[in-house]
Specification:
- The protein is α/β, with parallel strands linked by helices.
- The chain has a single domain, classed as Rossmann fold, CATH 3.40.50.
- The chain has helices at about 1-15, 20-25, 65-70, 85-95, 110-120, 160-170, 190, 195-200, 205-215, 235, 245-250; strands at about 75-80, 100-105, 125-130, 145-150, 170-185, 220-230, 255-265.
- The chain is globular.
- The two termini are about 35 Å apart.
Length: about 270
């Protein structure tokens, strides 16, 4: 697990120094190793969202979690894997002056970039913290809302990650998380490719397993708010699998999906909670 974390951290340190166009023309930002064709494989368009800041958009997401997160004025929002601050700044527009936003990222280069961006914008209620999603640098019962965009699939221990989300949420709080999941089994050598792992696919769980972890953590009212199948161009897949494997993949029921999941931390209903 630690080796995988090192791969992800190294890759996203490189991504922090790239342009949005460089990230979008590769496999979920995985350097230039996947392809040079001009495809935006995972990311959605933020341009029309209030609070959007182009300097903070590295084209790394796989959804728009703030669109579904039911964020209100005055809320405290935590963004996991906050990168250069893209979702944080959109969330800040929703919480207003009376709310606050905390971005957490394990990559120093991303934190540096995010702090540069927030300094330019002059926001006093947005902060960025260096830390691990499996051991969040946040006190318990802090957040009204937790968001994350195409990051938890890169975390080796997803059960621990969701346990940490549960810990930092207030009772009555909720999360809205966009992530990559699988339906069916990907070819073995695709799963083993560390570069593809940092590019959002091979670290993904089966959809049913992903939702089960959320339920087993204690979350309630679990909903898939949005789901779309990801069409990865053949040019990219052929960097990792043979033509024969690609043909077999197309004929099977295997799929890569972007989902946005909502769940709540509810009171247990007992007197001693």
């Amino acid at each position: 697990m630690e080796d995988l974390k090192k791969v992800v951290k190294q890759k996203y340190s490189e991504i922090a120094l790239q342009t949005k166009k460089q990230n979008e023309t590769s496999c979920c930002g995985a350097g230039g190793s996947c392809s040079s064709v001009d495809y935006t494989i995972f990311s959605d368009n933020y341009d029309k969202l209030e609070g959007y800041n182009a300097d903070a958009d590295l084209g790394l997401g796989c959804g728009l979690p703030t669109e579904f997160a039911k964020i209100k004025k005055g809320d405290t929002v935590i963004d996991l894997g906050s990168g250069a601050g893209n979702d944080c700044f959109v969330a800040r527009a929703l919480v207003g002056e009376t709310g606050s936003v905390i971005g957490v990222d394990m990559t120093e280069a991303m934190i540096d970039k995010a702090k540069e961006n927030v300094a330019k914008l002059g926001f006093k209620n947005v902060q960025f913290r260096l830390g691990d999603i499996e051991n969040l640098p946040v006190t318990a019962d802090k957040a009204d809302v937790v968001i994350s965009n195409c990051v938890l699939n890169l975390v080796p221990d997803k059960q621990k990650a969701f346990s940490e989300i549960y810990r930092v949420l207030k009772t009555g709080g909720h999360f809205s998380i966009s992530d990559v999941v699988l339906v069916g089994q990907l070819p073995e050598n695709l799963v083993k490719a560390a570069e593809m792992y940092a590019g959002c696919v091979s670290g993904a769980l089966q959809k049913n397993e992903y939702l089960s972890i959320i339920e087993n953590t204690g979350f309630k009212n679990i909903q898939v708010q949005k789901e779309k199948q990801i069409s990865v161009p053949d040019e990219i897949l052929l960097n990792y699998i043979s033509e024969q494997e690609l043909n077999h993949l197309k004929q099977s029921n295997v799929g890569i999906f972007s989902i946005t999941v909502y769940a709540e931390k509810q009171s247990c209903g007992c007197e001693n909670c």
